[in-house]
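Try it yourself: sequence plus pyridoxal-5'-phosphate, in.
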Amino acid sequence: MELVYRSTRSTEKTVTASQAILKGLADDGGLFVPEQLPKLDVDMETLKSMTYQETAYVVMKQFLTDFTEEELKHCIKSAYDEKFDTEEIAPLAKVGDTYHLELFHGATIAFKDMALSILPHLLTTAAKKNHVKNEIVILTATSGDTGKAALAGFADVPGTKIIVFYPKGGVSKVQELQMVTQKGDNTSVVAIHGNFDNAQSGVKEIFEDKELAEELAACGYQFSSANSINIGRLVPQVVYYVYAYAKLLENGEISEGEEINVTVPTGNFGNILAAYYAKQMGVPIAKLICASNENKVLFDFFQTGRYDRNREFVLTSSPSMDILISSNLERLIYTIAGQDAQKNAELMQALKEKGAYEITAEMQEGLKDFAGGYATEAQTKEMIRETYQKTGYVMDTHTAVAAYVCREYKKKNKDAKKALVASTASPYKFAHSVMTAIDEAYSKKDEFELIDELHKISGMEIPAAIEEIRNAPIRHTRECDADQMKKTVKEILGVEV
Ligand SMILES: *Cc1c(COP(=O)(O)O)cnc(C)c1O
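Structure, out:
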């Protein structure tokens, strides 16, 4: 049976999965959502013994119904290979009494690799299926990790170009170096004078610009997105929650049907939405705990039902979560509004115009699977230090936000369920913040000295992604103001300005 996709903002049109992936964003500015969430058609007993790739197939085939078995298996095989430093792809680590699902074993050592290593394959397959002749231009706004993972995924992929916008001064040293040293003739990286929300809004505006789309089409280009607004990002992320549950079962950590809680360090709400989809598919997840840093818009939303971005934007040590407009929340809003596109569109309009909206009491009922929490900068640091001292395990700042929120949730609610924490980045990516959290004395050393120190204290091998940038030449130096993104895109593509 074919699963069709609709925009969260209007109901008339449906598209296939491959068309939704190609377009990224719907014409009306809405996000594509499946008409209904599919159920797993394989039982846990079978899933227990499956590899990551096998699990990926049984999950993704339920969503991407217009891909053939051969196409999908080829995409999966090309994505989850030696680019990952472990055959398990997403291994579990037991830290104290909590299970960390390590999603940072891919090429760019952050969880974005889980989806962005397969997205280029899904997209080029989708282009072929739909007889697209244009070159596809991937436009991406990044808070640090998406950019590099997308660049790595799309570099030198025939028929594609990729342009990444990141907030200058808003990413870690390693994140920036990873992006500006990117190879590939089809890659461009631009630092914007603004924050991530400016970059994301700018990209969305370019997508919604019909005139520009026509101009580009005349030159043989069309846009798509590698941001988590693309359903092709979200679907591969459902896989690891299914896989993690099955592995916990296989390892005897949980018993059949036992419910677990999942805590996810959240920015754009993509990763936690994937966990929610996994729950809808039948994975026994009780609470989905949304962890924020000091940009705690989502925490406040889960407390009060009011989403309000009118507040100071805080630069934190977990930059990939420094976000005030969590795009993927729209998919949840649409769902809890009873798939009412009109209602959702009204709320999103209010967000655009006033920066805030409030959901009804009835809609709040639909949020009962979720809980929110946040960690301050001091609490995040303390969590890293304390965990290292107690267990020897070193985690990155984003993961520490989640680990803190997970622990506090447990205490406050006296909830003894087994806890899974999505571990979203390698500590090497945020060496400065991680090492100074462990000992303030490290603050005098530079980034690469700290990387070597981190290796000494943790015994974790230094990832290839880090070695690569130590001496790599800088290839991208372009900068622009946040209101000049459209002009910059035209310049890069050589389209008349
Ligand atoms: C992107 C990112 C997040 C936030 O994930 P969302 O899907 O945007 O909520 C958290 N941690 C790290 C390391 C990331 O790169």
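One thing you can check immediately is this: Residues 110-112, 145, 228, 265-271, 320-321, 398, 424-425 surround pyridoxal-5'-phosphate (CB under 6 Å).
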